[in-house]
Write a structure and sequence with these properties.
Keywords: Glycosidase, Hydrolase, Signal. GO terms for molecular function: alpha-L-fucosidase activity. This is alpha-L-fucosidase. The protein is α/β, with parallel strands linked by helices. The protein has 8 helices and 16 strands.
Amino acid sequence: MKRPDQFLFLILLLIFIPVLCWAQNKPLSKAKDLTSLQQDFVDLRFGMFIHYNIPTYMDEDWPDPDASPAIFNPKKLDCEQWAKAAKSANMTYGCLTTKHHSGFAIWDTKTTDYNVMNSPLKRDVVKEYVNAFRKNGLKVMLYYSILDTHHKLRPNLITPEHIKMIKAQLTELLTNYGEINALIIDGWDAPWSRISYDDVPFEEIYTLIKSIQPNCLVMDLNAAKYPSEALYYTDIKSYEQGAGQHISKETNKLPALSCLPLQQNWFWKTSFPTTPVKDPLKMVNDNIIPFNNAYCNFILNVAPNRDGLIDDNALAALKEIGKVWKNEGATQKLPAADAPIISPNLAKNQPADGSWSDDMNIMDFANDDNFNTTWKVNPRVDKPWYEVEFRKEKAFNMVVIADKTPVTIRKYKLEYRLDGVWKTIFSGENAHKIKIHRFDTVYGDKVRIKAEQTGSTVEIAEFGVFNERR
């Protein structure tokens, strides 16, 4: 090939590769570091949650998982109306329920027949939503439920085929609809769903999401179980107010999300058009403003009706919010925080031992995957210690100790045993409630902490050992 032809060929490549990627709805943005993405999310301040799915047509948030797709039949579906309503409240993004707990997919999925293309609508709602919100200058996020009662993806029934379906569905959502700023995941490792991060492997799913869209934040609605001082299995700490999860406006230092429905339920009910919505001024003064001042983004749920439209009373409330609250853009800079914990806990339910404790607070309470139970040392013990034993030698590169409030351990030594010899990981002071130690990979069959008594009775909620991917 002659040089002029080579030059022309390169020019054509530079023109057509971006066009091809755009045509396939694939994002072209460069990968950003997680701290920047978390800051960007908090700076968005306020968005619209959109619970719209088959529950809309059954007057139930938890409908019959075998309900026929025939009932999903909006006559006037208009995602443009949703987007303009969000703009009227000065919101910056939306988040749509692509699949809720009963398993109905409202996009053109190839993974199951239980989807919107087999309903009377026969239109891809996710596609219409992302197009409308982007057209109106709004960011796009998606909600996805791990719990799926239609496909029997529930406790004690999860199979490898279920894991394949989850991965395939997430791959579709992250490949076919352009740049997704965040994925809000629900029904996973929650006290009510009882699907653990071992049943459906969190690290595998998290890594898959980041491999497709590295700038997509992974937000798991699991705040009820985990301490508020660290990011356990999520990029953003989340709080569902209706479930009793409330952020501390005074002490929170993590990038956070708080969510609340505008009316009494997440999905539309026949009573909604005639039932008063929550006070718009209260939404502003009790939620948006104080949360934004506490590194927290507020997402307000607005539920479209069975025609696929937002009711007049909800539209009026959103306009009222927009009159009294203006989005001023970037918030204050986030404090430095440890990276999220995303790996399986190797210490969970392994044999444990330790110094003297009462029977009600014995050793295995510190590695039972329950932050409400503790191993508590008898106050007479001068130099408390606690250890977890593996049944065979394991590789690991992180240890996390969940202390109590107020903190009971400040000065301590972390050690691991290899070939009968104890080696030091850390020796010093750490006054944080959640003490996260990351280090180069080591191998051992035991891990222990040796605490120095500081006047408090030593108490550990959870002692975790991890081998995270790096």
